TrEMBL record:
Active site per the UniProt annotation: Y103
Keywords per UniProt: DNA-binding, Isomerase, Magnesium, Metal-binding, Topoisomerase
Cited PANTHER family: MEIOTIC RECOMBINATION PROTEIN SPO11 (PTHR10848), MEIOTIC RECOMBINATION PROTEIN SPO11-1 (PTHR10848:SF3)
Signal peptide: none
Domain Spo11/DNA topoisomerase VI subunit A N-terminal: 75-135
Protein known as: DNA topoisomerase (ATP-hydrolyzing)
Similarity comment text for this entry: Belongs to the TOP6A family.
Catalysed transformations (reactions): ATP-dependent breakage, passage and rejoining of double-stranded DNA
Length: 342
């Protein structure tokens, strides 16, 4: 069933790619200047008057690329080159990273961000997510705790050793979702569903997301998950797409509360906001990359006094920190959804 669904999605994408490229070729053969219309999305605005119509599902205008502008010509060239690579990946049922794509035409692409933008444009044009293109990032996320799951036939078993660190799967779409269980087995005195009956199981009571790998490793060294029935995840700073998709999968299927621990600075708060609301760069896919029920566990400015932290533990805000803070305070979702965070 999974294979049939993948085949159907790939066939649909390949059809859209053929129709898109054919329309460009037909315009050129008629002596007409083709144009590419790309819808634009955003997950927040900065309207200070509170009148906000931001929506994850509605576009916010469009961008028209034509062959009549030199900068647009190069951008369309890049888009078509990346689209050709994506077509080959889909036809051959292979996966490639954004970095792999960049090194196929480094002189044309000039830098990785050019490829990243083209991939986002293609997702919008084809109305799909990045993983549907068989383009995968290099995974950075880590997980440990009371969890066991299968991904593409490979078993990730954190249950018997909850403080053992595992990489978060890059192909999150291959992580199996729960099915009905009948048999149970015992591990360390705890009853949980058998892997013969389910592909992802957990007896955790909550999920803890931490910003930094150093904090994650400290929790592992302190055997945190041995005494706390939980799942711990880190994206090693700003979370990549697999980490965000994996976290959303767990919250959706396991129905566990999620808490987030980040640094008490503008960048920590921005990382928290990325987990909850998604990023502006991938606003078109925010509904698959956000965790609306995530709770801010800390740290808070008041913690320095509450826990009597010495002054040497604190760093002064820089001018850039203050500019970033002021810009974030204008985001509409802070006014609309979490005014207490603001």
């Amino acid at each position: 069933m999974e294979e049939n669904r993948w085949s159907s999605q790939s066939s649909d994408l390949l059809r859209k790619i053929r129709e898109f490229t054919r329309s460009i070729v037909e315009d050129l053969s008629k002596g007409q200047s083709p144009f590419v219309s790309i819808q634009r999305f955003r997950n927040y605005c900065t309207n200070s008057n509170g009148e906000c119509n931001c929506s994850y599902d509605k576009s916010n205008g469009q961008e028209i690329l034509t062959f009549q502008k030199e900068t647009h010509v190069h951008r369309i060239d890049v888009l078509l080159r990346v689209l050709l690579i994506v077509q080959q990946l889909l036809q051959e049922n292979r996966h490639g990273s954004k970095r792999d794509i960049y090194y196929m035409h480094p002189l044309v692409f000039s830098e990785q961000s050019v490829v990243d933008r083209a991939i986002n444009d293609i997702c919008i044009l084809m109305q799909c997510s990045r993983h549907n293109l068989n383009v995968v990032p290099v995974g950075n996320g880590l997980v440990m705790g009371w969890l066991r799951f299968l991904e593409a036939g490979k078993k990730f078993d954190c249950m018997n050793s909850p403080n053992t660190v595992h990489p978060i799967p890059v192909l999150v779409e291959d992580v199996k979702v729960p099915c009905h269980q009948s048999r149970r087995q015992i591990c360390s005195g705890i009853s949980f569903p058998s892997l013969f009956d389910a592909d992802i199981v957990s007896v955790a009571q909550y999920i803890l997301v931490v910003e930094k790998e150093s904090v994650f490793q400290r929790l592992a060294n302190d055997q945190f998950c041995k005494t706390n029935r939980c799942i711990v995840i880190t994206g090693r700073g700003y979370p990549d797409v697999p980490t965000r998709r994996f976290l959303q999968l767990l919250t959706e299927k396991l129905r566990l509360p999620v808490y987030c621990l980040v640094d008490c600075d503008p960048y920590g708060f921005d990382i928290l906001a990325t987990y909850r609301f998604g990023s502006m760069q991938m606003a078109y896919d925010a509904k698959f990359l956000r965790v609306p029920n995530i709770h801010w566990l800390g740290t808070f400015p008041s913690d320095s006094e509450k826990y009597n932290l010495p002054q040497r533990c604190l760093l002064p805000l820089t001018a850039e920190d203050k500019r970033k803070t002021e810009a974030m305070l204008l985001r509409c979702y802070l006014h609309r959804e979490v005014p207490s965070w603001r």
